[in-house]
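Methods, example record. To illustrate the input and output format used throughout this study, we show the complete record for Laccase. The sequence lines were provided to the predictor; the line carrying structure tokens was produced by it.
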Amino acid sequence: MLSIVKVPVEDTPYTRLCSTKNILTVNGQFPGPTLYVNKGDTIILDVYNKANYNITIHWHGVKQPRNPWSDGPEYITQCPIRSGERFSQKIILSNEEGTLWWHAHSDWSRATVHGAFVIYPNHNKGSGYPFPKPHADVPIIFSEWWKKDIVEVYNEFRRTGADPNISDAYTINGQPGHLYPCSKSDTYKLTVDQGKTYLLRLINAAVEDILFFAIANHQLTVVGTDGSYTKPFKTDYITISPGQTIDVLLETNQPPSHYYMAARVYSSAEGVDFDNTTTTALLQYNIGNKSTTPPSNPPLPYLPFYNDTKASVNFTGKLRSLANEDHPIDVPVNISSKLIFTVSVNTFPCANDSCLGPDGSRLSASMNNISFSLPSTDILKAYYNNISGVYGSQFPSKPPLVFNFTAETPPTYLNTPKKGTEVRVVEYNSTVEIVLQGTNLLAGTDHPMHLHGYSFYVVGWGFGNFDKEKDPLGYNLFDPPLQNTIAVPKNGWAAIRFKANNPGIYIYIYIYIYIYVA
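The corresponding predicted structure is encoded as:
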């Protein structure tokens, strides 16, 4: 089915936390509108940039087979859409099914320009959910709110070289909730009937933060992640990385009342500031034709502590592909391209120690000791038009510097990476394994990672340095989760596999690196 959708991007005044400011929105909505499609559909989206800033839109988790031109990241697959201009994107869906999302891919515009992308089963082919059809499905979007203009926050971050200012609130479906000033009356409320099952489509649209989420007195059943179904399992809380989606079933099996939904940050880096507030929403039961009256202080759900790494990996480690006859998987076994990428937080020196990062330096980040430099011409255009000097093709297949990556105190001379605009070339239809190795340079932390153009199987993960002889023996090649976004655990590693069957140039983003399929 072919649909055409208009996407106006414009400034809109919004009031949160007792003050009003203009934010960038789509259709004047925060979060933006939810798109509903069926598996295999094609959509034409006409993006009208009515704002004062350049913009691009990315369709997070959509593989876009042989269509990288509409993927969205600026200066990678396209130049940004200038103020007053229009750009048409063709969104081609293939085997995605479940919940994805869309967002701006220019600077930090995605803080407010984002929304849910719901992909229903293709009922024309007789398919349906691999679980009983829920009574209703509801997108639940987590995001952040700054009192300052987000452009000012981003520009200050770039100018000073220090950590960006932390957000003033987290939000659930655009609202901070009861625990913030001037927010109680507008708290998001989900009204439900007792004895029903609801499909909650959880999306973490926070700019940087991993979040814990739970609902008081209710267990959740995980059934999907990143547009793919999982083996169901029950949990009291979920851990969700920025960019990740998780589908859960909620059974409304408690006495009719009000129950808090709540989310707060998981932050594992020591000595780094973070937003330690908690966003809430209300789950309210109907009684007959009336909703229940909210108590003055409904109980908060249990959420793991801010730095509880064990709780984080205990959840993510339970994810498994459904891997049945109707939803088969195809995990690459014979690998033709083995890659190891270190993922690090770094610094660059500033003249006279004039920046506000550690010891007067400028914060940076790298993969395999290369910190990405954004080109002035998009890489995809440079490739197709044989424009030289835009990028190089020498991104290393393994770390150029080998050291004890997770040592407690790595040598400080390793803190400064090289700069470059490099891509990694892999052959069409090759089978690829990437081991993402976190390091303890500057600050060991979890590293959220997202690959454009592909989903990948997470075949293994662990703490410490990856052992190429021992660790692959423990890989899960039977039912690994199929994802497009993961978090490499603090001072640990994760191994992913995929088949390079989607030609183009695609961004692997935590720090910029590009995978080009020839």
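Annotations derived from this record:
The chain has three domains: 5-125, 136-317, 337-510.
Residues 5-125 form a domain with the Immunoglobulin-like fold (CATH 2.60.40.420).
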